[in-house]
Fold this protein.
Amino acid sequence: MVNDIAIARNDFPILKEVINGQPLAYLDNAATTQKPQAVIDALVHYYQHDNANIHRGVYTLAERATEQYEAVRQQVATFINAASGAEIVFTRGTTTSLNWVAQTYAPTILQAGDEIVISIMEHHSNLVPWQQVSQRTGAKLRYVELTASGELDLAQYGDLLNARTKIVSLTHVSNVLGTINPIKKMTAMAHTVGATVVIDGAQATGHFPVDVQELDCDFYAFSGHKMYGPTGIGVLYGREALLAAMPPAEFGGEMINLVTRQKTDFKPAPAKFEAGTMPIAQVIGLGAAISYLQHLGWPAIIAQEQQLTAQAYQELTAITGVTIYGPTEPTRRSSVLSFNLQGLHPHDLATVLDLQGVAIRAGHHCAQPLMTDLGVSATARASFAFYNNQADLQQLVTAVQAAKEFFKL
Amino acid sequence: MNLGGLNDLYRQLIIDHAQHPHHHGALPAASQTITLNNPTCGDVIKLAVTFADDRIEQIAFSGEGCSISQASASMMTDLVQGQTLTQAKKEIQVFLEMLMENPAATQDDPDELLGDAAVLAAVIKFPARIKCATLAWKALEQAISEEEAHE
Ligand SMILES: Cc1ncc(COP(=O)(O)O)c(C=O)c1O
């Protein structure tokens, strides 16, 4: 299996790039992952052989495009174990999926004095939309806090929940701390008070299997580009009854049944949410990404990412002055490692690493309230994918040590 | 490793200013206090200035940021303290032009005008860091224009 994984690296042409005279060690996978040749080929093939607008033409080509597009909907449903394709809405990405739930569904169930619960580790895209809804509806925004080990404080969460809690929206995996949250348990707790549960799956779907029926969440959002698919495509999963109740965010072509001068009758979900011409090629590319992941298989992907993360954790902490944030237990975290080197701002560290071909992220990672909570203004972040290898890891560790020497820290 | 590239950006002068910034702190009696942040990275600079007779009488900065932003603020405050607003505005303009993609054909020589801050010209080769270098200067630009609007 490990061998298959080592070979899989060759499926990603970009990993052969040379950056500043050094081999590229791409360690910003939490921002976006690279694309395998299979996904690139699917996009090219679509434009070369199958391009037509979907759901409209009566001609063969349009039928072919429509068929492929709808087949991916089924494929996504199977991928996250939704009850049916009707529960899968294509969107522009996680941000759009979460905004739609917050802006159109949430106001239908929220009143002044109600409560929305999110966590302090949310990405801005699962935080700002809820602030906006809270301002509009008068519902109160409340936060699940962190424990000392960078996990969500379940006791405090339990205390937050009450009959006024109408929505709980949580990230499955933290894009800063790497924490994998116990979503199944937290969903069950939220359901005991009757709250609707929304999950931000942006950092989960490409890294381990997600089963929305097992999690029992009500909505689940994710992006294609963070799981080896194209940019510009994402998914909103919603329980059938909730999607039926949720008003569309956009209106226009293809989402209607019948339009008269003063009134319009919408198609049922998911079509009512997919107004206008959708990113068809990207949907097909997402399908190719899912097929690719299934072909590799979760056990190999998980084993490689856990091995790299655990080893990086160990080797980085062995460098005096390095602090790593988040859980220490490798099985409780994903392949995201946020860290700081004492005496050097993460931006400077990222520049030094870039000069050595190592691509990491530095900054607040779209989680400013979390940064404040951690008492830092920014962190450096390395995030691994299954195609990373020992050489990438050693390049990272060596580069951090070199930074230390250069700045005499 | 690529030390050449590193030495280009992190000259000793920049590291010295970053590690021991000048005019670092607050000015309780400031005429203008401007807080600017760099939204992509979260760096914050709080610049306090007291003006007197069309001059920058006192200047100080605080906040969080990388070596480049801290060094730039330290060098800038060294340069402009005691100067006339006209002179400071000129220097801001020359500094910002120095780090623009296509610098306007200017007659002004940054080396002559900008003091230590002229070494920050190297940042142009690191496009992701230009905003770090310009933050303090933009804060001063704003402080002066607010002061002038007041009068
Ligand atoms: C946890 C989390 N949520 C949401 C997002 C937003 O995803 P997108 O930019 O694809 O909409 C990200 C991406 O950075 C993320 O890491």
Notes: The CA atoms of residues 15 and 63 of chain B lie 17 Å apart. The longest helix of chain B spans residues 130-150. Chain B has one domain: 4-150. The domain at 4-150 of chain B is CATH 3.90.1010.10 (Sufe protein. Chain: A).
